């Protein structure tokens, strides 16, 4: 019986004894031993059950060997110590005459590790933080499906230790530029700058670990910290518990917002979802707190340092770079196309997600940054001038192949291209196709593809007709234009004149001039 039933039984026994019943009679009446009746008469509270110490005949012969393994772990590296499973494997190989179950070994090892101080579990002291005092920063891995493809991303996290509010953002790689950009976006999200930011020893921030908490920081992070006016603190190596706030936030974010694997069309769309989740999380109340995260965050803004008037130049500027004979510029480890003439000296502005090629302080090309090595990132629009002179090079060109792989060149464009070649010949037909590509880059690719589909449906095989369909207003635009025109002409409306008096002049009267 459970403890509650036992307490009720003791009460019934005590009342029966007070009414004159004997110990033996109460024992038979309730079907219990006389010893329990005497216990009920001595106290209304049932005594605690004594723990039964069981012998372990199979474990006894190998206890000494287990203790020797655990004692040797006291001098071994932390990550090269025995686990309970490894100890059981060794016992099976080294002492086959004394078979013992793995569960038995696990229970014994758990107790002995706690005695020897080898247990991985620690007791942590709860901490209290003032509003605006400290935020903790970290990265963590996560999977997401972008455009139907599962990719591995790096998620930035900054958590306020005062309010519990947190900001997250995804990047392809945890570069220094991504770290700095994420800081600025986080400051804007919180509405100010914290007094102190706590980091682990990430390479983008720390160049060298010195004695204690002293660090040799990178030049960029020192300048960034000076620009925004906060202090940096660093954890000891392999001591994630020293920034337990953000570590716990990472686990909560992964379990609640990355399960199931999130899906988005691209990285920007995913980050919009992540930001919406961060804002929605403000309605949550943390255990032990009396107000929601959002309410605490509103109060915390008054304690944060103001935002800097200007943003920090986080982009890396590379100069001089040369445009090669293929219209490419090598930026770091990859090649990016541009429409500039070969041999020109250009500047590359490298950000966490984009690469811009600049000449004479003007942006000549903009690409999505590639983090691989030896890749070519080519845009067909940059080669249109060359292809007009060399139309035969278009079909086998690498930029066109990359557009096909990216889904920017649907089958309808190939269909209209074939029609143009049949009508004008290969050379002129390709030039007509290049004219459509130029128009699409200006007017918009979605409108161009829609115009091409309409032309194919109508049996049109002329670029001028396609351009007419492209620039022709759609039915809704034509209706809106007609309504606007009628409203504009309404001010010129006049009543029709009355012609009755004029009709008298036309009457056939005597002596009248006809």
> What class would the helix/strand composition place it in?
alpha/beta
Query: What is the CA-CA span between the terminal residues?
Result: 131 Å
Beta percentage is: 15-25%
> What's the total count of β strands?
15
Would you summarize the structure shown here?
This protein has helices at residues 3-18, 23-30, 34-42, 63-72, 84-94, 102-116, 176-190, 219-228, 244-257, 267-280, 293-300, 384-389, 398-405, 411-424, 426-443, 445-458, 463-471, 475-489, 500-505, and strands at residues 134-146, 149-160, 166-171, 196-199, 206-209, 215-217, 231-234, 263-264, 316-322, 328-331, 334-337, 345-350, 354-359, 362-368, 376-377.
Explain the overall architecture.
- The chain has helices at 3-18, 23-30, 34-42, 63-72, 84-94, 102-116, 176-190, 219-228, 244-257, 267-280, 293-300, 384-389, 398-405, 411-424, 426-443, 445-458, 463-471, 475-489, 500-505; strands at residues 134-146, 149-160, 166-171, 196-199, 206-209, 215-217, 231-234, 263-264, 316-322, 328-331, 334-337, 345-350, 354-359, 362-368, 376-377.
- The radius of gyration is 40 Å and the shape is elongated.
- The protein has 19 helices and 15 strands.
- The strands form 4 sheets. Strands 1, 2, 3, 4, 7 and 8 form a 6-stranded mixed beta sheet that branches. It has a 4-stranded antiparallel beta sheet with strand order 9-12-13-14, with no helix packed on it.
- Helix 16 packs across helix 17 (463-471).
- A hairpin with a 5-residue loop joins strand 2 (149-160) and strand 3.
- The chain is α/β, with parallel strands linked by helices and 514 residues long.
């Amino acid at each position: 019986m459970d403890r509650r039933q036992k307490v009720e039984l003791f009460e019934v026994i005590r009342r029966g004894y007070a009414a004159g019943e004997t110990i033996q009679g109460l024992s038979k009446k309730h079907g219990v031993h006389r010893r329990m009746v005497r216990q009920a008469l001595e106290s209304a509270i049932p005594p605690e059950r004594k723990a039964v110490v069981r012998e372990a005949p199979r474990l006894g012969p190998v206890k000494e060997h287990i203790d020797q393994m655990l004692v040797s772990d006291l001098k071994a590296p932390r990550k090269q110590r025995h686990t309970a499973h490894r100890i059981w494997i060794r016992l099976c190989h080294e002492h086959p005459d004394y078979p013992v179950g793995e569960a038995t070994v696990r229970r014994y090892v758990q107790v002995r590790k706690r005695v020897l101080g080898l247990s991985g579990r620690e007791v942590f002291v709860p901490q209290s933080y003032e509003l605006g005092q400290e935020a903790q920063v970290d990265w963590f891995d996560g999977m997401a499906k972008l455009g139907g493809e599962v990719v591995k991303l790096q998620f930035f996290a900054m958590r306020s230790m005062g309010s519990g509010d947190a900001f997250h953002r995804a990047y392809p790689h945890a570069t220094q530029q991504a770290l700095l950009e994420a800081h600025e976006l986080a400051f804007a999200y919180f509405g100010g700058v914290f007094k102190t930011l706590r980091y682990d020893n990430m390479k983008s921030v720390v160049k060298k670990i010195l004695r204690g908490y002293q660090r040799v920081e990178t030049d960029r992070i020192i300048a960034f910290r000076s620009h925004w006016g906060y202090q940096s603190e660093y954890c000891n190596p392999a001591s994630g518990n020293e920034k337990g706030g953000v570590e716990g936030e990472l686990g909560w974010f992964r379990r609640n917002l990355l399960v199931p694997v999130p899906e988005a069309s691209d990285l920007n769309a995913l980050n919009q979802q992540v930001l919406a989740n961060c804002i929605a999380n403000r309605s949550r109340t943390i255990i032990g707190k009396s107000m929601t995260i959002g309410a605490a965050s509103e109060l915390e803004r008054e304690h944060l340092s103001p935002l800097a008037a200007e943003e920090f130049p986080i982009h890396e500027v590379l100069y001089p770079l040369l445009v090669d004979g293929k219209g490419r510029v090598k930026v770091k480890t990859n090649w990016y196309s541009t429409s500039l003439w070969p041999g020109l000296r250009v500047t590359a502005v490298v950000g966490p997600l984009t690469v811009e090629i600049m000449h004479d302080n003007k942006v000549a090309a903009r690409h999505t940054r590639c983090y691989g090595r030896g890749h070519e990132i080519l845009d067909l629009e940059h080669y249109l001038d060359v292809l007009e002179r060399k139309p035969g090079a278009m079909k086998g060109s690498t930029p066109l192949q990359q557009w096909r792989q990216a889904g920017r060149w649907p089958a309808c464009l190939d269909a209209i291209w074939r029609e143009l070649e049949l009508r004008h010949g290969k050379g002129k037909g390709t030039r007509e196709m290049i004219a459509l590509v130029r128009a699409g880059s200006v007017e918009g690719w979605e409108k161009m593809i829609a115009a091409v589909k309409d032309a194919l449906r109508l049996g049109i095989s002329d670029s001028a007709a396609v351009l007419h369909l492209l620039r022709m207003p759609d039915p809704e635009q034509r209706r809106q234009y007609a309504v606007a025109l009628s409203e504009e002409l309404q001010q010129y409306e006049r009543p029709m004149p009355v012609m009755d008096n004029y009709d008298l002049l036309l009457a056939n009267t005597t002596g009248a001039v006809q």
